[in-house]
Amino acid sequence: MGMVVGKNMTVLMWLAVVLLAIAGNGEARRQGKESVGFYELRRGEFSMVLTNWGATILSVRLPDKNGHIDDVVLGYKNIGSYVNDTTYLGALVGRVANRIAGGRFTIKGHPYHTYRNDGHNTLHGGHRGFSQVFWSVREHATGDFPYITFAYRSYDGEQGFPGFLDVLVTYKIDGDLSYSVTMYARPLDKATPVNLAQHTYWNLRGHGSGATILSHAVRIVASAVTPVTPVDLIPTGKIMPVAGTPFDFREPAPVGSRIKEVEGGYDINYVLDGEADGQGVRKVAVVSEETSGRVMELWADQPGVQFYSGNFLKGDEGKDGARYHKYAGLCLETQDFPDAVHNPGFPTELYRPGQVYKHYMLYKFSINKYP
């Protein structure tokens, strides 16, 4: 397996454990699985590397129109940099992705207070959400359609959330240039909100190209968004049509074409309305990059997708000496609507014992031979 996050596995594992100890990661110690692993899935020229730290995608490599293979996701040069990372590069985030206003909610009159790590709000599950714990490897298969399944048991009171929760995520290469992400979560003893998201940053030109994603053409199959307050990005509870606004990506348009009209850049949930199949899976978005010819389609079974243009990237050093400045990558995070615990008009994200949360995503890549 080709390492993409460092040259010395032993040193990296030692560094990760030391840094985790410094960080005081009680959750990891509670799980008793303080071993970092790296796992490659490959089919021909298409490959991806993952780690059980945060069930994180470290790289996705595929050819461009000239046959040159690039890594098209942002990531750090070593595993130690993922510890205490607040940009969530490639991570599986939860127990509740996106924001919970005030870091609190109630279930049947019982108040719960979650760790506030985004001002007065909880973001992506709190300071030590699912992106900041060790996951165990449930299954790892090679062959024509390789896959890996990570498992994590979230304990009652973790980051303030109620009840034990069993979580599984499977990454699988489904074809020559496609892979899927399948997430399951099952409450064991108490009702709890659940909203998992995959937080990979994409740059189809190549993560180390030095180019921003402002020239990437994006189409989002949604005619409305859930508008947010300008300061803390909490949904107002309304549904706003995108027609006549800079949020309208119903037809392909460069990310940078109207981004100056959006304070800070794009970071908003779209209300998906494409036609779904019998399993509830619909086309979510299409991203294309002309220089490389790479095209990415995203399909999923969730009601929303967070479109984020990498507004808070601040020049951190990534793989191969790359620097990730503002707009170096974009995210398309399929999800339930943010802050659904406070908005009864949004699709529910509350699950009770006996119910199962499921979230399916499918990425399809292709190469356009532009003139």
From TrEMBL:
The record's section on InterPro entries has: Aldose_1-epimerase, Aldose_1/G6P_1-epimerase, Gal_mutarotase_sf_dom, Galactose_mutarotase-like, GH-type_carb-bd
| Catalyzed chemical reaction(s) | alpha-D-glucose = beta-D-glucose
Positions binding beta-D-galactose in this chain are N98, R99, H199, T200, Y201, D267
User: Which BP terms from GO are recorded?
Assistant: galactose catabolic process via UDP-galactose, Leloir pathway; glucose metabolic process
Highest taxon, organism lineage: Eukaryota
Could you list this entry's UniProt keywords, alphabetically sorted: Carbohydrate metabolism, Isomerase, Signal
Q: Does the keyword Signal apply?
A: yes
- Which pathway does this polypeptide act in? Carbohydrate metabolism; hexose metabolism
EC number, as in UniProt = 5.1.3.3
Secretion signal, residue range per the UniProt entry: 1-28
| Molecular function terms from GO | aldose 1-epimerase activity; carbohydrate binding
Catalytic positions?
H199, E333
Q: Which NCBIfam families does UniProt cross-reference here? A: PRK11055.1
Q: Which family does it belong to?
A: Belongs to the aldose epimerase family.
- Protein name according to UniProt: Aldose 1-epimerase
What is the species of this protein? Eleusine coracana subsp. coracana
Q: What is the lineage of its organism?
A: Eukaryota, Viridiplantae, Streptophyta, Embryophyta, Tracheophyta
